[in-house]
Design brief:
By secondary structure, this protein is of the alpha+beta class. It has three helices and five strands, in the order E-H-H-E-H-E-E-E.
């Protein structure tokens, strides 16, 4: 049950009147944490086929509502390119929420020529809800 004391970033939004699909994915990356975020979003929808969705949603695919919840380690949230995340989804109106989550682990070696800035291996989690 949500209360006034529930942090706003964790409150469930009343974005959909009906859910058609909810998918989740996680991904990890050693060299480019943003790549792992985009890959997790893409993987969450890539292997799902909902061929009748355009007929089910009033107004068709362009009127779908997609809620994308990103669980990203706090120190990596500031530099997120949300337009690149939105570009993963070919249809619908995309709403993105970010919360603290994922994981940072030490991968043991920084390789500058691969773009490393530290020894972090970043894991992000994504949940994509599709509805109308």
């Amino acid at each position: 049950m949500l209360t006034d004391k529930t942090p706003p970033r964790l409150q469930v939004r009343d974005a959909h009147s009906r859910y058609c699909s909810i998918q989740k994915e996680s991904s990890l990356e050693q060299f480019n944490y943003f790549f792992t975020l985009v890959r997790a979003c893409r993987n969450a929808i890539e292997f799902n086929q909902l061929p009748a969705l355009g007929e089910i949603v009033p107004g068709g695919r362009d009127e779908m509502k997609l809620d994308v919840l990103l669980a990203v380690p706090a120190k990596y949230q500031e530099d997120l390119d949300l337009n690149a995340v939105r570009a993963v989804f070919p249809y619908g109106k995309v709403n993105i929420q970010i919360q603290d989550g994922g994981m940072v682990a030490n991968h043991g070696k920084m390789i500058e020529k691969m773009g490393d800035k530290n020894e972090d291996m970043v894991v992000v989690c994504v949940a994509v809800s599709v509805g109308y």
